[in-house]
Design a protein that fits this description.
5-stranded parallel beta sheet, Rossmann fold, 6PGD_dom2, 3-stranded mixed beta sheet, N-(1-d-carboxylethyl)-l-norvaline Dehydrogenase, domain 2, 13 strands, globular, alpha/beta, 2 domains, oxidoreductase activity, acting on the CH-OH group of donors, NAD or NADP as acceptor, Mannitol_DH
């Protein structure tokens, strides 16, 4: 059954579908970056409210700022912006059609349609899932990188920006000049302090181009921090076939685990949906929740992914069933990650690690190591290196974290242990690959990437342990090296 408004009533009875009148929905949110995660997370929370007769004036308008977003736009518009969510769990499978998104803006050079949509006073939240790299953070300083070519372009061409930051500034400027109020900028990305990072990006760029606008933004616009969590694999042929099997002809179905969490600050300058009535947690203490999740889950993903790539373990579940990768994962977590995580109400770090172990081991979720390893040049500085710095500061062990970095360097050499090639998997892949090959003979070359490691190369313990592990990976192979670490032996 081709998914559309007209066919909703004809879907198989077991598939949950919108009970609300989609034609009566009015927009209140523009969301930039309509990928699988957004549709399984924020869009789902809003859909749940709409199912209860709430938030009818908060519907989502989708948007993108890159040319490749046009493909998703075409797919979703052809099915009235409906998305089927397929929950995969060992105890059973279920499906639901989500209807909280009602339009998808044209993807145009200069982002005119996006700027005009955000300038409409009906839009009270502008949200985004643009990945860690979309915030233009300099890993060496953790500050907004105003020297990036994209940012320099937007400063020179404020009416035709290429970034979401430039588009947001253009829209906020138009709203201020028209006497309209501001909107909330709501990051839904996996970054600790994602609201603070968004605020720094927007206000820093505004300060460089229009100081008066920067003052207005600092006084009027809010940037709530949030923690988002749901494992959502990429969609491929298997997912498309699964949707068809259960009676859905969806060009962009989303599979996901039976777990969601959303923790956010109640800081919305123009109102918000009643997120808490759909299960979200509103708290001023987001940072401890996000630190637990980003370090144990996202950091844990990086512990697994590069080892999995090198040993041809194609999925995170496959990594968890490999005894050497699993033992490596658990020892790094228990000895070098969990000790640097604070508890949150109702959850200790050890209990959260047990939850993550079970979630990663879900055999129904085909979350690929390639997806998880993508963009290591953003994910390692964001998820792994802060733990390494804390461990050094506390005088704790760092051997496993140094091995994690050595595995990434070895993976970027672009061959697995069995000799098969690893395809490019990072926006900076060519540069990483060149350095990885040089590091085979001179490990210090890898740590010398100051835009990633900052001053960590000057830490004798890091330089020594990283170099020893990288030598071991090239000399003895990944499996033997992981087993040596798990057994408590040095590289």
């Amino acid at each position: 059954m081709k998914l559309s408004n007209d066919t909703l009533a004809e879907l198989p009875e077991a598939i949950i579908r919108p009970s609300y009148d989609r034609a009566a929905l009015r927009p209140g949110i523009v969301h930039i970056g309509v990928g699988n995660f957004h549709r399984a997370h924020q869009a789902w929370y809003l859909h749940r409210l709409m199912q209860e007769g709430l938030a009818q004036d908060w519907a989502i308008i989708g948007a993108g700022v890159r040319s490749y977003d046009a493909a998703m736009r075409s797919k979703l518009l052809a099915q009235d912006c409906l998305t089927s969510l397929i929950e995969l769990d060992p105890s059973g499978m279920s499906a639901e059609v989500v209807g909280s998104m009602i339009d998808y803006l044209p993807i145009e050079e200069g982002n005119g349609p996006l700027i005009r949509a955000m300038s409409d006073p009906a839009i009270r939240i502008v949200a985004m899932t643009v990945t860690e790299g979309g915030y233009y953070i300099d890993p060496a300083t953790d500050a907004f990188d105003a020297s990036h070519p994209d940012i320099r372009n937007d400063l020179a061409n404020p009416a035709a920006p290429v970034t979401w930051i430039g588009a947001v500034l253009a829209a906020l400027s138009a709203r201020r000049d028209a006497g309209h109020g501001p909107f909330t900028v709501q990051s839904c990305d996996n970054l600790r302090g994602n609201g603070d990072i968004s605020r720094a990006a927007v206000t820093t760029m505004a300060r460089l181009s229009d100081p008066a606008l920067a003052d207005w933004i600092e006084a009027e616009v809010t940037f709530p921090n949030s923690m988002v969590d749901c494992i959502v694999p990429a969609t491929g042929e298997a997912e498309l076939a699964l949707a068809r099997k259960i009676g859905l002809d969806d060009a962009a179905p989303v599979t996901h685990e039976n777990y969601r969490q959303w923790v956010l600050e109640d800081a919305f300058c123009a109102g918000r949906p009643a997120w808490e009535k759909a299960g979200a947690t509103l708290t001023p203490n987001v940072h401890d929740y996000e630190a637990m999740k980003i370090r144990i889950l996202n950091g844990g993903h990086q512990v697994l992914a590069n080892a999995g790539e090198l040993l041809a373990a194609g999925t995170i579940h496959g990594c968890m069933t490999d005894p050497d990768i699993f033992s490596f994962f658990m020892r790094v977590q228990e000895e070098e990650i969990v000790p640097h995580v604070a508890p949150v109400p109702g959850m200790t770090p050890s209990a959260y690690l047990d939850l993550i172990r079970r979630r990663f081991s879900n055999p129904e979720i085909a979350d690929t190591t390639r997806r998880v390893a993508f963009d290591g040049s953003s994910r390692h500085p964001g998820f792994v290196l802060p733990i390494l710095r804390d461990a050094l500061g506390a005088g704790g062990p760092v051997d496993g974290l140094c091995l994690v970095e050595a595995l990434w360097a070895r993976m970027c050499a672009a061959t697995r242990d069995d000799g098969s090639p690893i395809e490019a998997n990072d926006p900076d892949w060519d540069a990483l690959h060149t350095v990885a090959l040089a590091a085979r003979q001179e490990p210090a070359a890898w740590l010398a990437q100051s835009h990633i490691y900052g001053d960590l190369a000057a830490e004798p313990q890091v330089a020594d342990r990283f170099g020893a592990w990288l030598d071991a990976l090239w000399r003895d192979g990944t499996r033997a090296t992981l087993a040596r670490y798990a057994a408590g032996r040095k590289g």
